[in-house]
Amino acid sequence: MSTISQSGPGRPRTFHVLTPAAQLGDAVGNDVLGMRDALRAVGFSANAYAEYIAPELTGEVLPLAEYERDGQQVPRDVLIYHHCTMWHRGEEVYRNTCNARILRYHNVTPSSFFSPYSDECADLAVQSRDQTMRLVQLGADLFLGASRFNLQELADAGANPAKSDVVFPFHHADQLSRVDTSLADLEPYQDGRINILFVGRFSPNKGHLSLLRTFAFFHSYIQPQSRLILVGKSDSNFCAYNDQFRAATSQLGLEKSVTIVSAASQRQLAAAYRAAKIFLCLSEHEGFCVPLIEAMLYKVPIIALARTAVGETLGPESLTYPELDEIVFAEMMNYCLERSDVRAWLTESQYRRYRENFSHQVIAERFLEIIRKI
């Protein structure tokens, strides 16, 4: 196995980091740019490319056509392909490149979560998972999972374990923690209520209906002076899911106790974390779950459903439960709120886990260590 170094005849000319779409604040996009910046910081040449580029990232991310024209025929270069959804053009690029290949896998949500709400999204999920199989069969010099859970899915698809490793995703939690918030930003949450927070787009796998049912029990039987804050964009593909959530909110009489921030600015997101007393995650499918580490950094106690990669991200010192039971989770929240010693243990454990595993420096060092061993 050859070694990538910064000097000598074996040095690759450029690392080419590819993603289907580059959008500001997107978890995959943050990982793409984080990889590029980490490589550049130690002297490698590296560029990020996408087929779709949001206007605010023009110039920061290059059009895929530039890679197809200038990069894919150079055997000494390295392609880092980020896979998270079906991408026809990307698969052709991956198949035809002369570069060394790294397949970065962010996970694909199973179609079963989407089929009750959107045939189109369910079909896309099936196609995306089929593409995962094809990409793995095309081979790679390195299979790079964003979690051990993701890496196991690649192994199930046939990836060589000897060429597989885990690097947690680059993110912007450090920058978010430094965002200033004003009294005006915090004012909506400072009325004496207990704020329960979840951050994540409105998608059927994210567990918003379970959050609502759990909060309803907590609000009705344990702490009436409470509020559920949901930060996340809605998706026009899931109008039926959004309608179901709104109808359930009304039926449970929670219209005045649920706050939705659908297009949060960085200041609004930071304010929500600073106001939160509990971060409740009942998502049923995650390949990593970046908001968990944001909550760690803000020292918000996390209570979570231990499914897919969530337990791995949180680690052994955490408050989790493997089954969806709104009474159990409501009582777990109450236990955490009533016991200051439990809150202190949990937040300090989470914060330590962040510093030891998820800080930008730790992720960059791990990433570069693995890259140099290819």
Explain how this protein is built.
- The chain has 374 residues and is of the alpha/beta class.
- The protein has 2 domains: 15-170, Rossmann fold, CATH 3.40.50; 174-358, Glycogen Phosphorylase B (Rossmann fold, 3-Layer(aba) Sandwich).
- The protein contains 15 helices and 13 strands.
- Strands 3-2-1-4-5-6-7 form a 7-stranded parallel sheet. Strands 10-9-8-11-12-13 form a 6-stranded parallel sheet, sandwiched between helices.
- Helix 8 (208-222) packs across helix 13 (326-338).
- The longest helix has 20 residues, at 119-138.
- The model has no long low-confidence stretch (mean pLDDT 95).
Topology summary:
Layout: E1 15-22, H1 27-41, E2 46-53, E3 62-63, H2 64-70, E4 78-83, H3 88-96, E5 100-105, H4 119-138, E6 142-145, H5 148-156, E7 164-166, H6 173-177, H7 183-186, E8 194-199, H8 208-222, E9 226-231, H9 239-251, E10 258-261, H10 266-275, E11 278-281, H11 290-297, E12 302-305, H12 310-314, E13 319-321, H13 326-338, H14 340-358, H15 360-371
Parallel strand pairs: 1-2, 1-4, 2-3, 4-5, 5-6, 6-7, 8-9, 8-11, 9-10, 11-12, 12-13
Keywords for this entry:
7-stranded parallel β-sheet; Rossmann fold; 15 helices; alpha/beta; 17% strand; 6-stranded parallel β-sheet; globular; 374 residues
Provide the spatial order of strands within the biggest beta sheet: 3-2-1-4-5-6-7
CATH superfamily of the largest domain: Glycogen Phosphorylase B
Helix/strand structural class: alpha/beta
Count, helices: 15
